[in-house]
Amino acid sequence: MAVAPEKIFAVLIGINNYRGQYNNVKNLYGCVKDVDIIDTLLTTTLRVPAGNVHTLTSPHGSTPETLPTKTNVLALIEEVAGRAVASGPGALFFLHYSGHGMRTKTIYHKPENGGLKSAGAYDEGLCTLGEPLMDVELSNILDGLNELGLTVFVSLDCCHSGGADRDSLHSGSGGGHDALDDHDAARLESVSIRCPFPDSDSDDEIDSGTEVGRGDGDGRNVIVQESWLYRNRRHNLLAACQPSEFAYETGGRGTMTYHLDKTLTALKDSIIPITYDMLITHLVSKSGIRNNIFPQQPMLLGNRNRLAFGTNTKSALTGVMQGNVTKTEKEVGFTLVTISRGASHGVEVGDRFALYRPDQFTFGLLNPDEERAAEAIILEVTNMTAAARVPTTSNLANIPKVGWFAVLVQRNHRPVIYVDTVNLSDQAATRLQNSWRELPEDLLRPTADLRLHSDPDIVPEITCPDTFYVKPSEDGTILVVHNNNTEIMENVPSLDHNDDSIARTLSLIVRHLSPYQRLTNLAAREDSTNPWNPRYEFEIKRIHDVNRSNSPTLPAKVQYGVVFKNTEPSPIRILNQEEEALTQFITIFNLDPTYGITQIFPDEGADSFEVYPREAIDPKFKLNITVPPQLQAASQQPGFQMLDKIIVLISSKATNFRHYSQPDLHAWLHPEDAHEDVFFKKITPKGQNNMPSRQATRAEEEEVQNLRSLDEFKVATWDIITTHEDLYPQVEINTANHTHQPPSRVVLSSSR
Fold first, then answer.
1. In the chain, what's the furthest Cα-to-Cα distance?
2. Could you give phi then psi for residue 250, rounded to 5 degrees?
3. Which of 65, 203, 467, 716 is 20 to 30 Å from 588 by CA-CA measure?
4. What is the C-alpha separation between 601 and 608, in angstroms, rounded?
5. Per-residue DSSP letters for 607-656?
6. What is the pTM of this model?
7. Worst-scoring range by mean pLDDT, 643-647, 666-670, 735-739?
8. In the chain, pLDDT over 70 holds for what percent of residues?
9. 222 near 299, Cβ under 8 Å?
10. Cβ distance 229 to 135 under 8 Å?
């Protein structure tokens, strides 16, 4: 869930005027403007109360009563953090710094200073007035904030080396220019670099005897990937550039700060939750920050999967499906809405979506204490969209509109489990059935329909891909899970029927296997109303064993190249009219042997990737097949093999399939990793009893027919079978006479 605006607290520091300190270091000209930009972002875009945002600046032309000295900065951090803690659980502390940075030989290798670092290491510091705030000090402060229960996000817009100056590359200071032009950055009148000595970044120039924070030219920017401050921490930190790069400013403001503002503003109304990984990807790819004018690459440190301005990681959102309303049509007594999720996403007739206004979400996360504005029940489903009915309400604010968020809150479908009781005692069967009735309900992953049968000659009718059979062993001591083809599901733990928690364990297993089975079944799904037959090339090629292990007990990593090319013809122009480009959008998943589902292309959680006619995905994209930890012991035995399924979801328009992702079964079965919905409690949705299933009206049927013209979706799959011989090849190979033979175990499962 998003952090409530009133629970976000910020300290913003910007130092332009160094007032002759640090041996009269050159002044800066955009740091105070950076603070103004972030202040406006927080109070306007994110609606943070102005009283929660505190600034310390050192501008030109005036002397504030409180300057950003180290003492004042530490005091302000302590004060604001105290207010954040007092606001209750779930608060976020945000620290932004724009100014000089420094780097010197460490003093923390000495015993009297704690012996925290090795000799020859470096100390980094923020050049606050008076004296610098060093990395060890700031690290301890951030750790302390985490221990107080605060979520912490830090952004630093400063340079990589030298003293981090902002001298203009042209005449003048670089201040006072208009906002950065996104469309033509090359026309900027002024570009400044945040380093006073851009031609010198050698560590050899640093005098190890120089006092920390003193000397001429010994300063180096704090942004380094491996240091005391930036090792793996519980906070997230966004840095303006890599250690070997400069950080630039234009128009009298930091380039990274400007684009961070634009990125957060653009992503605020995203219909999917935004992680810090997605934030930095957007920051780099959607801006000119890495072009010839700004050859700097921002870097992100900390857990990349943590939700931006949220308190959880994306693993807490497993299975949560979000879309939006793309069309509305008022009818008598109800509104017919189109939702941007369909059968390819796993939506079925009877599913229920909660609808929310855009202002109820921030960065794809539901704001705290928000009530759903309306609820929609799905009437018809096509490949990519669904038609739903929303009852008319007298509250005009709750009448759905295009752009509203739609979140799946209840699935109508239940998996089915048939339990063969032939070799099961009456006592064990009764205990299982009684325990099953007591299981708590989960609206997003409903408890399966448990059906006991005792006739081994009767095979129950298969009604859906997530039908499972549980059969006891011959001696009746354990239960084994089978799929809808009555085949044993490998790597699924057997169940002891005497275990008191057997019902809960079996329920968790089936809830986890159900999405896996439904995703694998998409390729076999036929839709006669959708004749779309896109042209493409899809192939997975074994790469020469470059990751072979020299240890007989450590399995090798088997690497594959993934090829996907849109082979549709390029559009042509006829009579000044250009033919529509047959663009394809793809998402690639790896379904691993332990039933985990990982989006491997594009980056996990991202929208589908656009592939233009005659173009292909990056040939550098590689896939490493590794043995899951729980299978490593078994992999050492001859005859071992495991199956990875690679599934490509191909559509004619951009969409998102992130909700399919899930951890492997082993992680799922651990109580601390079990699925817990962060959006909704496990309660009956409001209005459920007022919306019975019904037949679609003629108007609704016509709407569904209109949807089908845009409904283009296909699936391609490839099976990778990895054997003991693949994982433990002979260590000694005559490379001069060795000819690589692609293994016959890689088999194409299905095509276009």
1. 92
2. -140, 150
3. 467
4. 8
5. PPEEE-TT-B--TT-EEEE---GGGHHHHTSTT-EEEEEEEEEEESS---
6. 0.71
7. 735-739
8. 71
9. no
10. yes
